């Protein structure tokens, strides 16, 4: 798994027992996982077990941990890949096991929630679509972009809102629109 130097340093700091005791590590890791899900989460700065750790260090480690978690999910990494990568980053076996167990619990919980949501309600039904083609010449950083952008709006009806209409808006490039049309 390829990780940037900043992510590697942040994860190595998280692995250091002098910076993060085991209890602090487990709380911090749980907050990192939860921040990537749709849970209402507290900030890492609100936990008393993490108060003695420098805020800049917490931010850096949080960014590194969430980046690693996203990379693990993106690559659909198995246990051996996750564990060997963490061991390479100087995580002891106790921390590796705690991280992997939390990964399994959160992943299982998220899948159960998604299945529960799907079973409990009907998926939204698209009733109307509108779109607009924009052409972006420059972005906010004054870099030339010169590419089309599609603004798509889906009007939907959902079984849980007593058939009340809702609107889903998003912006996509031509390539993203082609992928959307290919899969749907």
TrEMBL record:
Signal peptide: none
Span of domain COMM: 125-184
CDD domains: Commd3 (cd04751)
InterPro entries, per the entry: COMM, COMMD3
Taxonomy, superkingdom: Eukaryota
GO terms classed as biological process: sodium ion transport
Family: Belongs to the COMM domain-containing protein 3 family.
Name of the protein in question: COMM domain-containing protein 3
